[in-house]
Here is the input.
Amino acid sequence: MMEAYPVYLKKCLELFGSGSGNRTEEGLCSREAFNEYGDIVIERADSKYTFESPVNAPTVNDTVIARINELSEWLSERGAVLLVAGCHIGKEELTVPEEEFIEAQNMLKEGLSCPFISDYRDYMFDYRLFYDSNAHLTTEGVELRTQQLIEDLQQWMELNADS
Here is the structure.
């Protein structure tokens, strides 16, 4: 790293001097969009995203399960517990039947060495709650998903209070 630092510093100074480095971007990728915890904090009132492709259940296979289990073991060796929770899922006409999500959920539960604490059906939201992609929710969607995650965590903690 010490050998590369002078080159890095020179490039940074050139970018700073020309005014072309570290420009402020707008939107969800701007530095101003995040708080000190890394949470996106800008208002996302209305959906700008249109679902055009099918919304499929997550792909669960031996590779996915092995990677999660490896991370769980690594964390366990350091005194932490990995909990796997549901992700937000668009649910309307392009979404595959719930049964496919339940099947993926069951495969995860059976294969994981750590707890899967959610029910995918609880994380299915109207398309209008997705902001600019299927990965970002509107402010209302974020609040609903966060509340569901809190409920899942509280339930897991109550069931595991003695461990």
